[in-house]
């Protein structure tokens, strides 16, 4: 799963590349946890209302496709195929603050992740809108020790949203992540962010999502364990 991440700053180069304007209310976040707000990036001026109404009516039933079964058996990173809600052209991209976690009526707790292997089989996820989650890094635990995972570039997570919030797409861990956790967030290839946001019929695998990205773990402070701790102190080495 991917349940904690940071967004301390967004490089100016990334903002220019995607045609984004940093919100005046942006503040560094060191420990973003479920139910808390974070910045997301949406395409154009589309409304989230259509996706919300459609997703609310969808059951949580799971139907495993042949492609999903094959990916599960082989361990390969599966393609992500999502039919999105009604789309209206309207670039440029824009920032929107949404809560981390979707809250459909039938869910007992917020849905923070969507598994790439079964994404195409669930009507609830097909009704949502693709979005991007900007991040400096994300956190996972091993033997009760929290680690911050980063790489040599800024991260954009593939995610889905409605007006209630967003969930991050995850896939099987690659070789750099596997010693620490069996799952990892879907990180978009540099230059493919717009493709994730604007395709009408999402059919994305390794072409858009960088499943092989080399992730670098760094142990951090146990202060990270509490979502209330949201300062640079959480990044201190133990």
Task: Give a written overview of the molecule.
The protein is α+β, with helices and mostly antiparallel strands and 238 residues long. The protein has one domain: Alpha-Beta Complex (hypothetical protein yedk fold). Helices cover 14% and strands 30% of the residues. The chain has five helices and 14 strands. It has a five-stranded antiparallel beta sheet, with no helix packed on it. Strands 6, 7, 10, 11 and 12 form a five-stranded mixed beta sheet that branches. The longest helix has 9 residues, at 66-74. 39% of the residues are buried.
Distance between the termini: 23 Å
Q: Which CATH architecture? A: Alpha-Beta Complex
Give the structural class. Answer: alpha+beta
Mean pLDDT figure? 84
Radius of gyration from CA coordinates: 17 Å
**CATH topology title:** hypothetical protein yedk fold
Strand content: 25-35%
Indicate the overall shape: globular
Question: Helix count, per DSSP?
Answer: 5
User: How many domain modules?
Assistant: 1
**Class in CATH?**
Alpha Beta
Largest sheet: 5 strands, antiparallel
Strand order of the largest sheet: 2-1-8-9-14
Order of H and E elements = EHEEHHEEEHEEEEEEHEE
Low-confidence stretches: 51-57, 59-74, 78-91
Q: Bin the helical content.
A: 10-25%
**Overall strand count:** 14
């Amino acid at each position: 799963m991917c349940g904690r991440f940071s967004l301390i700053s967004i490089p100016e180069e990334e903002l220019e590349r995607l045609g984004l304007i940093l919100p005046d209310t942006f503040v560094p976040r060191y420990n973003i946890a479920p139910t808390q707000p974070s910045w997301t990036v949406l395409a154009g001026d589309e409304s989230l209302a259509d996706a919300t109404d459609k997703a609310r009516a969808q059951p949580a039933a799971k139907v495993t496709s042949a492609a999903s079964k094959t990916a599960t058996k082989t361990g390969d990173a599966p393609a992500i195929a999502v039919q999105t809600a009604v789309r209206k052209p309207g670039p440029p991209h824009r920032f929107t603050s949404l809560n981390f976690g979707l809250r459909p009526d039938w869910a007992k707790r917020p849905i923070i992740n969507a598994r790439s292997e079964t994404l195409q089989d669930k009507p609830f996820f097909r009704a949502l809108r693709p979005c991007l989650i900007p991040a400096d890094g994300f956190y996972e635990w091993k033997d009760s020790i929290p680690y911050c995972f980063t790489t040599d570039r800024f991260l954009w997570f593939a995610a889905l949203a409605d007006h209630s919030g967003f969930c991050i797409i995850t896939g099987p861990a690659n070789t750099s992540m596997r010693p620490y956790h069996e799952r990892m967030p879907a990180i978009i290839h540099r230059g493919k962010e717009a493709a994730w946001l604007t395709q009408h019929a999402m059919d994305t695998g390794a072409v858009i999502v960088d499943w092989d990205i080399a992730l670098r773990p760094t142990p951090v402070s146990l202060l990270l364990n509490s979502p209330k701790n949201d300062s640079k102190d959480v990044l201190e080495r133990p």
